[in-house]
């Protein structure tokens, strides 16, 4: 399908899932706004290269997703938002009684509150146009839990609840809101963890991937950023016009257990 004429904002999109999703939206013809909290030459070069590759308009706009006013300003600076992908996120692992308060606050702000702010800023314009797609990148941890990830699990469960609420409020206005719940996705961040895990467990690469990192993912295969991006593009299509307020798991069967 073609998303030509649509503008997509993807938060946290200068690497990983966000970048992969932005590329798939651009491939489908959407103009794209990339985002992160940095403002480097390479951020803007990334946008220029993507524009050249796919023949669409691509801009990079700096905004710190831990600050509500910057989240809302991102939408305003974009000058329009037909597709909003809330992807920005961070992680920290600790027992709940030792969990640093500042880490809890940061994870809730970036992984959950940022989506509240961007949606609040984008939704009126979508309603006015009679068309809009909001896709929240949640996690398998939005549907289940793991030890030592209290803030992340709480935030991702919150994203799922926010998704359902926004879907109900936007129903009948041509606007849908859904959440994608990935399991382990092969991103540069995950790739960088493999050598250390090989040392810790005294295993080769394939053993670490299958027996440690993907222990809870029955397919024993990573999802790819292209698969997450492709799922997002589908949710933006006409075929998905009546899919709203739901979660789509891309987790190799994790949440089927």
How is this structure best described in words?
With 257 residues, this protein is of the alpha/beta class. It folds into 2 domains: 207 residues, Rossmann fold (3-Layer(aba) Sandwich), CATH 3.40.50; 37 residues, no CATH class. The chain has 8 helices and 7 strands; from the N terminus they run E-H-E-H-E-H-E-H-E-H-E-H-H-H-E. The chain has a 7-stranded parallel beta sheet with strand order 3-2-1-4-5-6-7, sandwiched between helices. Helix 1 crosses helix 8, helix 3 runs parallel beside helix 4 and helix 4 packs parallel to helix 5. The longest helix is centred in the middle third of the chain and has 29 residues. The protein is globular and about 55 Å long. The mean pLDDT is 97.
Give the SSE map.
Blueprint (H helix, E strand, L loop, with lengths): L6 E4 L5 H12 L3 E6 L4 H14 L3 E5 L5 H11 L4 E4 L14 H29 L2 E6 L12 H21 L4 E8 L5 H14 L3 H9 L11 H11 L11 E4 L7
